[in-house]
Give the backbone structure.
Amino acid sequence: MNQKNNKNSLGLDSIFEDLDNPIDLFKNWFNKAEESEINDPNAVALGTADQTNQPSVRMVLLKGLSDEGFVFYTNFNSKKGSDLKINQQASMCFHWKSLRRQVRVIGKVKQVSEKEADDYYNSRPYKNRISAWASNQSEQLDSRDTFLKKIAEFEKKYPDQNKVPRPPYWSGWRILPKEIEFWLDAEGRIHERLNYVNNNGKWIKEILYP
Ligand SMILES: Cc1cc2nc3c(=O)[nH]c(=O)nc-3n(C[C@H](O)[C@H](O)[C@H](O)COP(=O)(O)O)c2cc1C
């Protein structure tokens, strides 16, 4: 293959392809990451900000993906949950070390439907569903023992593995992407960046200095 054939129409490496929809490109990169990452290719840093504009970042797992956006699940009473109730603007950053690639997403979050949350919650192992009840995520814990006792209590309350209801404060958020940026490492810091900007439902492509 000659040099020209290794490039897309923007002059970027051909792995950026020439797609109009960044979700399609994300899926292709994600499939590749699933092949090469040691674990959790769906692990993603999630950035939120509180009422004082103080940002916080932590890892979550991507659990849903469609043209509408990127879904993760959490306790809505957690720190990130309270941030997102006040300020729906959020960002995500994937870093696949094995591929030396990064993808960033910014947008507004919207709660997933009750059905979507139930379907995902019910697909989780019993222990995970019980700990969703037992963990007051992000609140101070006096001792590890207190938490283990709460787990035992909820196991007693919900002994039937098929009948553990979803806690009312546990659900998913979907980031509706405004921008999705794809980044590829290159020698000499001559990295390549392709940014998709959502303009009234139509995706515009731009390339950025690294
Ligand atoms: C790889 C990885 C994946 C994680 N996935 C989730 C997740 O999907 N949902 C979640 O609530 N916390 C997840 N966590 C824990 C969060 O990083 C964080 O500790 C927790 O949600 C509390 O964050 P907060 O106090 O900012 O709300 C994950 C941690 C790691 C390291």
Remarks:
- The CA atoms of residues 126 and 149 lie 17 Å apart.
- The pocket of flavin mononucleotide is lined by residues 40, 43, 56, 58-61, 72-75, 78-80, 137-138 (CB under 6 Å).
- The mean pLDDT is 97.
- The longest strand covers residues 170-184.
